[in-house]
Amino acid sequence: MSKTDIGTKKESSLHRSLKFHYSGAGGSTETLIDDYVCDACTSQGELIEVQTGSFAPLKEKVKNLTKTGKLRIIHPIVTNKIIELYDVNGRLLHKRKSPKKGKSWDLFKALVYAPQLPLFKNLVIELAIVDVIEKRIDDGKGSWRRKGVRIDDRFLNARHEPVILSKLKDYYQFIPFEKNEPFTVRDLKKKAGIDIRLARKTLYVLKTIGLAEHFKKQGNAFVYRITKKKPTGKNS
């Protein structure tokens, strides 16, 4: 098996669809660059990496590939999901729409494991806002949380307007407060409509890239504000 075959072995249909979409006309897929295999490369030479999960595995890859040229990480955010449940014989048992709706803030669930990535020159993170169909099979091989039901595949159902983060200033949209306005993790939770764990992850990343800082404590809570000093990095 060649290096370029390894990346496709456990590839979901969603991953594959996004890979071919972003490679574009005249582009290529499973492109070998030095010791790395990229999901795609456009005809203009921009490298494409589709990452559905944590960004932790991308740390070294991004560090090295951005030295050679432009790299775009595509991170799908599932805003609508239809779940189809099949039996072991492939018969559709039922389908339903999931009540869960992804939002742009979900980026920080993945980015928290590689919080310095936005500082790299030549890197763009694009949130692909998508609807998917998730195929599940009731074969007893899934997790106990799903009572043995296994997720077999995810398919792209629709694409919406993406969110493109190419400059550090683009991340200010995740600080919904005025300059000099103090806020806590719980304030961010309430303002953004996210849970407390995601609010903590978001602030950790924003602190790491120099956009937010904590400057005092209020009881047991840290109080934050937009960083007064202009952040340094690729887009300062």
Short description:
With 236 residues, the protein is of the alpha+beta class. 20% of the residues lie in helices and 34% in strands.
Description:
The protein has 236 residues and is α+β, with helices and mostly antiparallel strands. Strand 3, helix 3 (59-65) and strand 4 (71-86) form a beta-alpha-beta unit. The model is unreliable at 1-7 (pLDDT under 50). Helix 5 (185-192) packs across helix 6 (196-208). The chain is globular and about 60 Å long. The longest helix has 13 residues, at 196-208. The protein is built from six helices and ten strands. The protein has two domains: 3-166, no CATH class; 176-226, Winged helix-like DNA-binding domain superfamily/Winged helix DNA-binding domain (Arc Repressor Mutant, subunit A, Orthogonal Bundle). The strands form two sheets. Strands 1, 2, 3, 4, 5, 6, 7 and 8 form an eight-stranded mixed sheet that branches. Strands 9-10 form a two-stranded antiparallel sheet. It has helices at residues 3-6, 13-23, 59-65, 107-111, 185-192, 196-208; strands spanning 28-33, 36-41, 47-50, 71-86, 92-97, 123-138, 149-159, 163-165, 212-218, 221-226.
